[in-house]
Write a structure and sequence with these properties.
The structure is a homodimer. Chain A is of the alpha+beta class. Chain A contains five helices and six strands, in the order αβααββββαβα. Chain A is globular, with a radius of gyration of 16 Å. Chain A starts with a helix and ends with a helix. Strand 6 of chain A pairs antiparallel with strand 6 of chain B, so a sheet runs across the interface. The first copy, chain A, binds a DNA duplex through helix 3.
DNA sequence: CTATTTGCAAAGTATTTGCCACCAT
DNA sequence: ATGGTGGCAAATACTTTGCAAATAG
């Protein structure tokens, strides 16, 4: 089951993944999907992002516990995602925060678009 | 009522705003809060952002229909926010997207921290 | 047999909608 | 009367939790 989940690709919502699994014949429960997703996210096996309309989506990064800070370029259509880094952004965020006297700074940066394949 | 809503400050969730209004003595309905919030957002009178944990929060920008593209530096504690711009970020996002062949690019960038006042 | 995993169903929480009452015109 | 605004309550949608059956060790 864990396996079946890990084989899913791209950023998908829990509900979406659940539906896919059922269609694929697995008789899995919704709670199981949520439970694993949370576990994965906790272990760093999955990235979590919230789309513009507030949906929570997950994506598996592979088995590598590569915990490096990165952001995503996500296809709005198919959910496919590229992991990207941006020293420029990190610097900008820190600078902005510092200038206003904010501490314990974090930031969320996600880029959405339509990938070459989907754009046709 | 519209007025009472507009007087709220900082980024707050709908539920939060609703609670405040009730405490302040207004006998307002939750739906009214949501309806106005959506209207405001549509008119550009309010900015909407989703916090890291998926909560939807709103903030009033004043009466100016100043629709310029900007981001926020938000205090995690009190909800206060500074509107910031970052040409560097815009450029970076476009560049990253272009490099991977993505089109119709958009991005969400929010910086969270604890403001000087709250950090004490 | 005990511990873990899983699925179902129930409970929660957040948001949207339907509908009727109320206010000013 | 008429249109718009507002409140309550019901309906949705998404996520979490309780619990007992199934499975593994």
């Amino acid at each position: 089951m864990r396996q079946a989940l890990l084989e899913q690709d791209g950023f998908r919502s829990a509900q979406d993944i659940y539906a896919s699994l059922r269609v694929q014949g697995h008789s899995v429960g919704l709670s199981t999907v949520y439970r694993h997703l949370q576990t994965f996210a906790g272990e760093g096996l999955a990235d979590v992002i919230h789309t513009a309309d507030g949906e929570t989506t997950y994506r598996f990064c592979g088995d590598v516990g590569d915990s490096k800070h990165h952001h995503h370029l996500v296809c709005r259509r198919c959910g496919r995602a590229e992991e990207v880094q941006g020293r420029a952004v990190e610097r900008w965020a820190d600078e902005v925060a510092r200038r206003h006297g904010y501490v314990q700074v974090e930031h969320t940066v996600e880029v959405f678009g339509v990938c070459a394949a989907c754009a046709g």
